TrEMBL record:
Species annotation: Roseiconus lacunae
Domain of life assignment: Bacteria
Name listed for the protein in its UniProt record: PD(D/E)XK endonuclease domain-containing protein
């Protein structure tokens, strides 16, 4: 008899969490007509490629555990995917970065962004959730911390 038990996400190591999140997001993207192809090595910053059933749409996606902006992703045509609450978000990095920089004062003036070109959000404000609304995918994030 097969003994299936749900895993404790918190007990996974970083690589296992990334694999887990890739599988969860792939299932959500399937509902939107995408198949995913995991890359063995980051390709231009992408962790995986999402191909739409239309045969013309390909997304290069970087998978994150939280909302993240990174200067090294600029001008690469990357999408960033991350879980938050019971949803997934998938957004074009450069487009949302420009919006966040122009419409909020969250990142500008911080050492993290100004000195290192990296900023991530553990908690999303109402303003950020409104900016992210067009990029929200509903889906199962059970186990994602």
């Amino acid at each position: 008899m097969l003994d299936l038990r749900r895993i404790d996400y918190g007990s996974l190591n970083a690589r296992q969490k990334e694999n887990f999140n890739f599988q969860k997001l792939s299932a959500v993207l399937a509902d939107f007509g995408y198949v995913t192809m995991r890359l063995t090595d980051d390709w231009g910053g992408a962790d995986f490629i999402a191909q739409h059933i239309d045969g013309d749409t390909f997304l290069r996606v970087q998978l994150k555990g939280r909302l993240t902006f990174d200067a090294k992703y600029k001008h690469k045509g990357l999408y960033i995917a991350f879980p938050y609450s019971d949803d997934w978000y998938l957004f074009p990095h450069d487009e949302l970065l420009a919006t966040v920089l122009s419409e909020t004062d969250t990142m500008t003036g911080t050492r993290s962004w100004d000195d290192n070109g990296l900023y991530h959000f553990g908690h999303l404000s109402v303003q950020l959730l409104e900016l992210l609304a067009p990029f929200r995918l509903t889906g199962d994030t059970v186990g994602v911390v």
